[in-house]
């Protein structure tokens, strides 16, 4: 079986599992958690395009998530614009902002890029907090309408699960396609050796900005979905801590791995649930995870799992040839 | 308060904040010059200074000076442990990995502080009381004098160390060319460790002297660290005059901006300055443009 | 094919190149030699757009490429390999060569993400071409190996395959024989001759004199940033100034 066919098969299997899961979880609280895992997966995949493929660090990605959420929220609550149109506008505006700041910001490298994106994120967060007239400030924005298609309203866990996950599966599929394409190769080339990529004709500067824009667009759409699902948003969800959480998801899942992003998102979304008794340990654990994974398993958990799978497979093959 | 004394007050608070930013900036510069990395966790040393001092003062009922000395020592130990466990093994790792690790360490230290001391803000009592002096219409508290005095002392000691002691010169040699430095017998590993020691010490001291004025809590490290970073960027990543000017400039712009434009956007001003500098003149305002040798 | 006119490069206080002018005949194999520090790699970096010259012009055919950035040159037919091979270590051997076809393809983010029919066709084309170039250099069996795991000699060949995928008019090789053993060097010579047969102009910077004298039709000697001599291998071997430069260096 060719590599491409195998990839498609894996994706179909994954999608089938995702779409079938609610049937086994009717009315369970866990469905709600899975909705959040869906949104976080979408965000982690969007960030992975930038961080994993192109190798550019962003510590302010929550800003685009928040921008999407707030634009959708404001347009639908204060201007009674149709939620789907608002989502389109939210995506468009975020992409536009990313495109504009992308050129100067992506000229920076390494730590300077990290700090600049951090600064950008904080500026956006302060804006969300202070423009009380628009955003409701720290008290948040409520009364955001649910999305609907005709008479189907997305206002409960079941409907929301499918809404979110269809988007997320779509984003995952597009990202998988992108990674195996000319563009994906060019991005990974920039990551491995920008100088050689340039000599091969890859316009690194423009491509980095393009992928940054796409990443911002997807994050904003996730934000919009989040706003319409939660019907209430506040700046707390869009600050530095969440930006760091997103980076942690991508890193522990595995840089450059789409399924790794799902894994990372799933773990970090469930961690507060699992550690409910030890809620305060979450920050310490994020820090520890980042350090340990980067030091001992730089390919993330997905690489650890695949090594484990290979090990088990070789043991089985060993037993078969001995038998 | 009339206009001129208001202005004087803004200038005063701007300068005293600026002095702190400059000290934190030194910490960034010293580690960066010795190792090439930006220590994201620098702000946490600052936080630890204040928090540990309060801990020793309140919990162990120690007098002020021993509490401070112990706090700085402990913060420095944390710096050493961090360097040994997380930095040294990864000297040859990808830059991205090093960034992630220092971010991870910063988060870890913040989380640990939260676990140990909770989320409350704490006040460190001022070193020598609260009787204000009135100069040019501004209310100067004794703590302000401590801040300026100690800052100047640290700046002088810093300059003296790097310019007049063998160890200091050795560290500068490492910063220029660590391979050549090792060839002449300088132990680069020790220099790297020393850079963390000095940065942690200065950082924690900065945190201690500002704490009586601005309260301290488990998460002050982020903002202070970032502003210290802005100061050192303005100053061209130097551990000298450039960063001092950078810090003071930042403090003043922030204070005046908060006073005359908008108090709630105070932090945003600092980050807009950061973005402007990084976009337009990343080598800083006070450094001559170097030509690159190959 | 390639012409340099009065190239100067000054770094701070150091003059790396001084008034270097040379020209390379189309379809030839030209060698650039000189003692260490003569400025050979600096010259390459300027020609390939990675450095900007302090003054002087570079012409590719009729076109003045003096101010063009590196990424513009591949589509004009100029490509290079690096002294310390710059492979895309995390990607497979095949994928490395496929990146060489970047300028021969044009699917953008949208068509790649949505796998439009045009992109699927183009991808097939890219893969076939890449395999062709791997066969040309004898690396076809290693197509699915990770580039970073290749032994040095094979890594060199991979870099050359990748450069050939650009279907350039001219290929600049920076010390291609460095780190190769004698057998590999002989194979390299054969490969370079086959590249010439494709009509591609080859310019190499080299230290391996046997290789240079063996395959180069024309040799340019640089010393201390200046052009010292230019001519056929025989002429260069007999040039007193060149001999002095090399002997005087040790």
How many runs of DSSP E, i.e. beta strands of chain A?
4
Radius of gyration of chain B: 19 Å
Q: What is the 3D shape of chain B?
A: globular
Largest sheet of chain A: 2 strands, antiparallel
Number of helices of chain B: 11
Beta-strand proportion of chain A: under 5%
- Sheet with most strands of chain B: 2 strands, antiparallel
Question: How confident overall, as mean pLDDT of chain B?
Answer: 84
CATH class annotation of chain A: Mainly Alpha
In N-to-C order, the SSE pattern of chain B is HHHHEEHHHHHHH
Number of helices of chain A: 14
Span from first to last CA of chain A?
Answer: 27 Å
Biggest interface goes to: A-B, 42 and 41 residues
- Mean pLDDT of chain A equals 89
Say how many strands of chain B there are: 2
Strand order of the largest sheet of chain B: 1-2
Computed structural class of chain A:
mainly alpha
Which structural class matches the secondary elements of chain B?
mainly alpha
**Strand arrangement across the biggest beta sheet of chain A:** 1-4
**Which CATH architecture of chain A is right?**
Orthogonal Bundle
Brief write-up:
The complex is a heterotrimer of chains A (about 325), B (about 290) and C (about 250). With about 325 residues, chain A is an all-alpha fold.
What's the structural blueprint in terms of helices and strands?
The complex is a heterotrimer of chains A (323), B (294) and C (250).
Chain A: H1 3-24, H2 29-53, H3 62-78, H4 83-105, H5 110-130, H6 132-135, E1 141-142, E2 148-149, E3 152-153, H7 157-179, H8 182-192, H9 194-199, H10 204-230, E4 232-233, H11 240-253, H12 258-274, H13 282-296, H14 300-322
Antiparallel strand pairs in A: 1-4, 2-3
Helix pairs in contact in A: 1-7, 2-7, 2-10, 2-11, 2-12, 3-4, 3-5, 3-10, 4-10, 11-12, 11-13, 11-14, 12-14
Chain B: H1 3-35, H2 42-59, H3 64-87, H4 95-117, E1 133-135, E2 138-140, H5 142-164, H6 166-176, H7 178-183, H8 188-214, H9 220-234, H10 241-260, H11 266-280
Antiparallel strand pairs in B: 1-2
Chain C: E1 2-11, E2 14-24, E3 29-33, H1 40-47, E4 55-60, E5 63-64, E6 78-81, H2 93-100, H3 109-113, H4 117-137, H5 152-165, E7 170-174, H6 182-197, E8 201-205, H7 209-215, E9 218-223, E10 226-231, H8 233-237, H9 240-249
Parallel strand pairs in C: 3-8, 3-9, 6-7, 7-8
Antiparallel strand pairs in C: 1-2, 1-4, 4-5, 9-10
